[in-house]
Recover the amino acids of this structure.
């Protein structure tokens, strides 16, 4: 599941996979109607706990918390454009719930713990310390079909604004 040049291309339908969400629901991404933004991120740490091995040496590994905070801060503007927000990582729902509470995120995080969604779309990943992590990217989806892929994400903190600007160009 390391992904390649042909992962998650615009025009691809999302796979019929249901994922648990931090709000207690399950989300079938292929069945989503309207526009959604799915912010895929590698991992979020917790204060006072160490990062995975070699985390500081992996390009793009850092930045999940500021990225999710950026989406949080712009959530109203995304909603004004009839766009649902989701986060997605390979972390467990229980781990993600703590993050949602700590950061006061107004949108659910989806757990792809078994990597079914990531594998179906051949999302790019990396490994360290014997664990696999997804590379940071964002999927803009309309009616269950990928409309745009933002990858690579070079500035996680500024990325939510980049996605919002793109939405604004659509009218």
């Amino acid at each position: 599941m390391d992904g390649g040049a042909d992962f998650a291309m615009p025009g691809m339908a999302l796979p019929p996979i249901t994922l648990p969400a931090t709000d207690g629901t399950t989300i079938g991404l292929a069945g989503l109607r309207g526009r959604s933004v799915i912010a895929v991120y590698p991992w979020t740490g917790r204060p006072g706990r160490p990062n995975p091995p070699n985390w500081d040496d992996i390009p793009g590994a850092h930045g999940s918390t500021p990225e999710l905070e950026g989406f949080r801060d712009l959530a109203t503007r995304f909603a004004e454009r009839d766009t649902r927000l989701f986060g997605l990582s390979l972390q467990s729902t229980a781990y993600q719930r703590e993050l949602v509470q700590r950061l006061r995120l107004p949108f659910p995080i989806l757990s792809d713990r078994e990597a079914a969604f990531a594998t179906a779309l051949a999302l790019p990943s990396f490994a360290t310390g014997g664990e696999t992590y997804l590379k940071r990217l964002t999927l803009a989806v309309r009616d269950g079909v990928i409309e745009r892929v933002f990858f690579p994400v070079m500035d996680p903190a500024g990325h939510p604004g980049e996605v919002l600007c793109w939405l604004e160009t659509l009218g």
